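Researcher: Next entry in the queue.
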Amino acid sequence: MPLSLILACLWVLVANLLAMRPSRDNHWRLAYGLIVIGIPILGFVTYQMGPWWGLACLVAAMSMLRWPMIYLWRWVRRQS
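Model: Structure for this entry, 80 residues:
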């Protein structure tokens, strides 16, 4: 298995473990950290495995971090 997919799987595992912790701010700080770490991993997966694997990892990450995506979508709709 390529290093990029191993890192992506570790990112998913860490995201799931962090989601199990109690949090006062509904995990927003953790989500920001996961986004900052996940973007380079996503780029590495896309570079090493190709755009289809990158797209699959992007969809997986978006499903795990769905609330930041929902708020981003609402913000984009308000701007237009």
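Model: Residues 3-79 form one domain.
Researcher: Noted, moving on.
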